[in-house]
């Protein structure tokens, strides 16, 4: 796993694993034991009441990772009835909702949301736009090739005007399935009371040889360098691992500007010296990674330092798969 | 329609019990405290069963509840501690340390204990609960990027504190448990 790295460095987690009272990977109590059964019985003896005084808060809506919510304010304006007539435009009788389907997408009103089920991830944006427009929604949806971890995720979104207290939510049906599996459908929920204009880029599987449009991690769970620690390592060491895994590589130089702003510049392998420093590795396309490098070794990783561009700790609205997209100076990837 | 709630809860309970008890035991100084945290976690979860997510996310949600319960518990404990600090030290000697813990491990343990609670929790979730960054993000309601940054910093602070305490990296391999990379 960490075989690129010399033997002198190991992960800090390796050090603290043995400190755990219950060894990592081991269960604590035995669920079939008396204690566990008694607790279950006593807990469920009462009707579930919802929150009671003194309870700790529970996690808010658990989100699929990478999922994006936009909170744009609280003004709620209910959409008026009477939409453009489309191939299968249906009103639900309440006068405030409708459905629409074409070969690319089927959109239905479900509660407070319009739920768009993607029928053809490779369809042109015009077809998605037509469907939303038929329901009175100014939503521009584009499905773009994305690294495996970001398929089915919103990785870029922009809005103008409108007022919703909730957000655009991407998911899959059946719940939690992977969009690459047969029968798994990508779903986008749009608040029905969204009155503004939105542009949403949703990740789809890449065709062979197609560059990813997002900036997904190459070392994360879905990355082809999964498990490799690249942060602060010399190019030659990381390249050895890249080659060992039979991957291709491209480079982007990180340029730290005044005040810590970051920009990125594509550089050729010939320009990059073996002693340059790698700070991050991104998935460029299937079989190819993009190493983010600087000629000199900096004290800290510029991608993650506080106040230095994309990694700023306050930048909580973005996630790492798509998160680095959309920043000034960032090239489209691949 | 609410009739499936007990069955659904029980299924999640069975799935999560081992992990939640381990989570509590790894963080509580006494078995009584750990038991309290486990019981309260599941009690809260049952009361909020309508909010219980489906699938694997349910366990992450429960970790999140357990974390809040534990934090609550610690706040109470801090108040008690203020009154019984002296006694605590005495009791700590009685609360036997594992015999096989070498000097080096004691130093690592000490450095680890002195990290901020947030850093300790993040590193523990990786090293002890074996959670991936994405899962921690889900559990804590943070973006993956935020988790990545925080982990990066926690690891760095820990490394620096270790170095300051004279523990170099690259110690004997025998200490490597189920190794995880980030």
UniProtKB/TrEMBL annotation, chain A:
Region (Disordered): 297-334
Top-level taxon of origin: Bacteria
Protein's recorded name: Uncharacterized protein
Automatic annotation (TrEMBL), chain B:
Residues covered by the RNA polymerase sigma-70 region domain: 13-77
Keyword Repeat recorded: no
Keyword Transcription: yes
Residue ranges constituting the RNA polymerase sigma factor 70 region 4 type domain according to the UniProt record: 109-157
GO biological process: DNA-templated transcription initiation
Keywords: DNA-binding, Sigma factor, Transcription, Transcription regulation
Pfam families xref list: Sigma70_r2 (PF04542), Sigma70_r4_2 (PF08281)
InterPro entries: RNA_pol_sigma-70-like, RNA_pol_sigma-70_dom, RNA_pol_sigma70_r2, RNA_pol_sigma70_r4_t2, RNA_pol_sigma_r2, RNA_pol_sigma_r3/r4-like, WH-like_DNA-bd_sf
Cleavable signal peptide: none
Domain of life from the UniProt record: Bacteria
GO molecular function: DNA binding; sigma factor activity
Sequence similarity: Belongs to the sigma-70 factor family. ECF subfamily.
Protein name: RNA polymerase sigma-70 factor, ECF subfamily
Native species: Planobispora siamensis
